[in-house]
Amino acid sequence: MMFYLLINIGISVLVLSLLTFGNGSNKANYRLSVFALVTWCIPYPMLAKLLPADTLVNPIILSQTFSTITAQQTRLNTHFIDYQQLSLMLLLSSVLLGGVIFSTRLIRQLKTHARIINSASFSYCDTLSKQHAVPVYRAENVPSGMLMGVFNSKIVLSNTITQANQIALIVNHEKTHKVRNDNLRLLILTLVESLLWWNPLVKKLSKQTRFYIEALCDEQCAQHYGYKAYQADFAELILHQHQSQQLTLNCTATSTKNNNIQRLKRLKEQREMTLKNKLTYTMSVTAALLLITWHTLALAAPNSANAKSEQGAFINFELNVTERTSDQAINTHTSQMTMWVHFNEKAAFNISDKFHFNFVISENNDVAEVEMAILEVSDAGEEIVAQPKLIVAFDQEAKIEIDNYQLSNHAYSITFTPSRGQKPE
Fold it and tell me: pTM of the entire structure?
């Protein structure tokens, strides 16, 4: 989780820097901001669990003994915090709260639409509708112009807009939004904002994405409206300081003063992507994708391709598992075994049906690197309780002891000695 946050923070900061200082085109900046938002929405640490798991092999067991001793224990008053469960609960609570925030915003927006439609001033403009081949309405207490609705959308003009050139600008602008399905984009954007309400970088990226949705609409509309005419009419429109409202789910012809000025400035600049900009943006996205891919594959922890050599490791295991049952009984499981495995090959064995052990042993000069996973099996399935890793010289003894109620009710003592050797006949 920590690497997920650090990687996404790095990507978001890089993208925001490029949006501010990169001098990219509207389309490139829009796609870049969407890319940064998407990285927050993909739980790629969890995707590692969906990748094909490595095949577990059964080691060659040369000898094994097993015994179980049962005793009774006194009740222990243990109070501990399950941090994994706490993290899951916090994540679920955050998502549920995000759903409530989104629902609240959606209901508020629908109420605003209903109030506009039910107002006495709301009326259908037959002439403008026929002229522009799109439903156009008039109403009071609305922004200069807005596109209302996601699928069966309609253009609503403020009654305060009376000049023909401003009306033509607004209708053409909102018609372009309708063709581009920008209200649907805003709906998805609002959902992402709501679910990631705790994230200030997402809020900043969302604000930038909203701006570039408007800037792209300006750019596309100006192509058939005429750049000079569009700039002049838009400048005239924003100088009137028409009423502005916070309508997160609707595209509006004008927004805040700063956004209007920036949109007009970008219309005049008509930025194009230079070769330098293209290389910078491409390298940034490629680096981000490689980092995400590397992290996902690293979490999957695949085994190295193992050449089928006969060289491997003998391991002498001595295991003691103290099982504490719900009826206060203590079962002590003891096992001694000698086995052989290939290097870098994930092997598995178990003590009874309740305690499973997976391990990989790697050769690094004169030392063995051992990675182990201790799993407990219950009616709910398998649960990894610990993943110890250690380095030990060949032919030397190492020991792992785990007795921590925050990890498990049970205790483990594992002693082992690795040594090199050829595969036994």
Answer: 0.68
